[in-house]
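pasting for ref
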Amino acid sequence: MSKIMYSLGILAFAIFIFLWISLKNEWVTTIDLVAAHLLKGNGFIIAFHYIGEQTFILTIAVLLLVWLWIRDRNYRGMMFTLLTIGGGNMINQFIKEWVHRARPDIPNQLASFSFPSNHAMMSVLFLFTLAYFMTEDKRKSASSIIVWLVAILLAILIGLSRIAEGRHFASDVAAGWALGFAWFVIVWAWYVRRKKWQNT
């Protein structure tokens, strides 16, 4: 499992870097335009952006921290949560300021930069973190598979909502998903190793 996670994390980071260096290529522009045309104005998908709002994510993060503390004083788990969600948000904002990519040109557009999508990146981080702790002791049970499938589906829908709403390009969203997963794997690897050291 660890080897698969590491490989997927490296692949995700490679995809992020590839998208970053390809932002001005014509094929990226074409994909962005096609995705915008297919999803623009889809009310069902747009509704999912609320789950990716910072207020909602912060609320879930605080509740998760409290639960980890009350359940078994899992301080490493609390640090895991702070690193994925808090650290991930800081990384996202830093890269946005560095890349300086403008958002799609629509009325009443947001003032912040576009690449990578914060909603897409943070949806992966907070949903995967939540799913991990919900299934940490269940291994490969049917319920854990369902939890992870729901987390993945919601992360996809949250990212797509930003395209449907015209707030981001498809390449912003794909980069957000990729970077979010890569950062999740890094923090997950730290957490698992620390946990093994404790048990040896």
